[in-house]
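Field: COMPLEX_INPUT
Field: COMPONENT_COUNT = two
Field: RESIDUE_TOTAL = 461
Field: MODE = joint
Values follow.
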Amino acid sequence: MKVLLPSPLESYTAGRREVAAQGATVDAVLRDLDARYPGIRFRMVDEQGAVRPHIRLFVNRAPERSLGAALAAGDELLVVAALSGG
Amino acid sequence: MAGIRVLVATRKGLFVLKSGRDRRRWSMDAPRFFGQIVHHAVLDPRDGRTLVAAVRAGHLGPTVFRSTDAGRAWREARVPPAFAPAPAGRQGESVGHVFWLAPGHADEPGRWYAGTSPPGLFTSDDGGESWSPVAGFNDHPDRRRWTGEPGEGPPDGATLHSVNVDPFDPAHLYIGLSAGGVFESRDRGATWTPLNAGCDAEFLPDPNAPYGHDPHCLRVHPAVRDVVYQQNHCGIYRLDRGANRWQRIGRNMPRTVGDIGFPMVLHPRDPDTAWVFPMDGTSVWPRTAVGGRPAVYGTRDAGRSWRRLDKGLPRAQAWHTVKRQAMGADPLDPVGLYFGTTSGEVWASFDEGAQWHCLCLHLPHVYAVEAACPA
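Field: COMPLEX_OUTPUT
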């Protein structure tokens, strides 16, 4: 499935903002992504399994807050890094 | 030796100032981790080439990067500091940022310690590549009482800082909690004891409370056994072990200046010489240079007397702050002193404070300054 990443994470993917990963849930996709690009998941998900405060996830452009949400093969996961302030 | 490196950790990246050992001409590299918050960067004195940096981006979680070639190439830790997952049904903690990095004892190459916010202690035995929690502190039944409830403490979060390894005993650790106090362990972190007797805590109802104090920066002398100093929220102290009661040596500072501040810097060889950077701790605690006239104060007699050291520093209208990690010393003779300000200036003295020179202006808010000699 297609995963779209924000610029703060492109250092993990050699600059690629669109990558592929597999999994039946959001969590599984992020774990697969981490296997391909080590360290990337911990920047988005903390050690207790919570999505970090300035990370937003969208499945097929709809907001998704649950890492357990089911995904199908053709879905698209969009990761947004949302931060304000100087 | 290749010269001197001053590692300036800022709110927008890591800047490295370089000079030969004569400290006459300085240059600065392009920033590393540009745009990311670097809380601390430290060169391992045991090999002179391993660097470890605590990094986070505003958007992203905290991590640690390391270099094994004195900063030319950096790689992220394989396992950054992280609390243990909580048992099912209980709320766990997550590291907000890695705040303090400390190399381990000289006899334990590869060992590092990290202090975090919320207050946690972590260790690595492979040069910062993988980190694990120090359960003796992080899971201690009294930890929450020592550190306060989540949300309490400084605006950027309560921290575990000032991790010091006794240079004469690798099992003997000191830490500072803001707020919470100074604690020590004599068994590599398995058990902990408060070490705050003699320290004032004007904000605590019980003047003899065993913990709850607010050490800002604790330094164990690197060359002379059992000499410890701290700059506390409530004064400057020295502790000579054998005794377990801190002595407020800041009482000997000029009354118009006071003894409030953040950093504490020790002479690398002389246990009676130390430097502080006083801050305005009156009324609402502006925490800027006192009167807008920045000055380092130094003692050469274990705090019995203090001397103002401000030659070369701005004479007026300088309202910056020097944070607890933002002042340090190099190991040369005479000792070089360095400090960075919240307004992005880095100042240095190459004669132990007698004369100050501005090394650079216009950096981002400086969080930490470490001077070191790479191999």
